[in-house]
Write a structure and sequence with these properties.
about 170 residues; mainly alpha; Growth Hormone, Chain: A; transmembrane helix; transmembrane
Length: about 170
């Protein structure tokens, strides 16, 4: 049976700088990912009227990078985890900008960048879990792991809400 966490543990965790940085980075990454993907899927569907074509966006972003999972660990072992997170986040931002730019302009490059973005995001998720184990005090680790995952759900919720707020069926 797992020990109960006290309210003071929760407050201590929520004021711990490493946790705040990791949680915010994970939240913003998920918010941006859902926002980008929902926009791409909607645009693809509106242009092609094909749910299959729209679904390909998710396949390229999430399924193809699964083939490269062993490479995630290797990359995260090559640098200190802090630098892995920073470098991978920069690659993710660059790939995201490229995805937005090359949508409709150069579809092969668009799909390559979308796959690279998915790979970077998977690598970043692995690095974030490792960073929690490194930077969190042992007494706060179980609670930090539980709360860290809330960033994924809240980011997805926020991305969906922002995407929906800007959706206009007239476009």
């Amino acid at each position: 049976m797992q020990a109960q966490q006290s309210p003071s543990s929760f407050i201590q965790l929520c004021t711990f700088p490493a946790f705040i940085c990791l949680w915010l980075a994970f939240f913003l990454t998920n918010l941006g990912s859902v926002l980008l993907l929902s926009t791409l899927v909607l645009k693809t569907y509106l242009q092609t009227a094909s749910s299959f074509s729209a679904g390909i966006v998710y396949v390229v972003q999430w399924f193809l990078p699964i083939l490269f999972l062993p490479l995630n660990g290797w990359i995260n072992n090559q640098f200190p985890i802090k630098w892995s997170l920073i470098i991978i986040q920069l690659f993710t931002v660059g790939a995201s900008l490229g995805v937005g730019y090359f949508f409709k302009e150069n579809m092969p490059l668009f799909f390559v960048l979308l796959c690279l973005r998915g790979f970077c995001e998977n690598t970043m998720k692995s690095a974030g879990a490792v960073a929690l184990k490194i930077y969190m005090p042992a007494g706060l680790l179980p609670l930090s792991v539980s709360l860290y995952d809330s960033a994924r759900y809240l980011g997805a919720l926020g991305g969906g809400c922002v995407s929906n707020a800007f959706y206009s069926p007239d476009e």
